[in-house]
Design a protein that fits this description.
alpha+beta; single chain; Glutamine Phosphoribosylpyrophosphate, subunit 1, domain 1; five-stranded antiparallel sheet; flat; about 300 residues
Amino acid sequence: MALQDVCKWQSHFQGPSPHLPQAGCWAVPRGCDPQSFLRIYGPRLAHGTTTLAFRFRHGVIAAADTRSSCGSYVACPTSLKVIPVHQHLLGTTSGTSADCAMWYRVLQRELRLRALREGQLPSVASAAKLLSAMMSRYRGLDLCVATALCGWDRSGPALFYVYSDGTRLQGDIFSVGSGSPYAYGVLDRGYHYDMTIQEAYTLARCAVAHATHRDAYSGGSVDLFHVRESGWEYVSCSDVCVLYRELQMFTEAELEGEAHQTQPEPVILRGAEEGGEFPVGPREMAPGDSRIPAETETL
């Protein structure tokens, strides 16, 4: 039964809300419904992000930038893209911000109800399966949610990727968003399962910083989370510009040190001209030079 039938309530406004502009104020052609016109001809604003997560011996690392963008417009430079679900589970968010926030609230509610019924928190795999099943019903309705669920359950650290079309994958490394190709390049080079905690922190910061430098839709700061056996921990928030500058300075110093260590010593060879000695480096002999040292001719 409707509310007005129970409470004898009737709306004071018959028709559109008076707070909306009149039909002639909309910037659409005359005779067209504004919502239909914008749905068909309206621009699809490009949005992007850089989020990543990887599993290693000491837990799961989750990191993300903080820039929320709509096309060329930065909607929010300090948004939180890593959302806690409960004490031992959190997830990275990529896609439409409203969809991600809403579906994580739904997931929190469903996991809480299941924990009250069963007496224990569901596993990370159960949470990923539940979220995938709920979102798959809205396939084809322009829902955009891509998330990496990071948690620690009875089986240890676990990591799952879930997409709004129902896709559900388990793995050790996931990066989602427009900056993910650049982040994968850093992760594939430096990741190994037995890394230390500080190595994992450095790898996550470095991957997000390099991705934000190349991807125009990513930026702001780097939020870093660590999921341990005792629960998740918020590690740090680092400015990407300062972080990338420090990484560049460290790389240049490291390359200079390697260049000094690997500089070859000059080789003394006895030439055919008057038996003199002359120093040559490893690249000083021309490819077409047929003069061969006397010691080599005996071979």
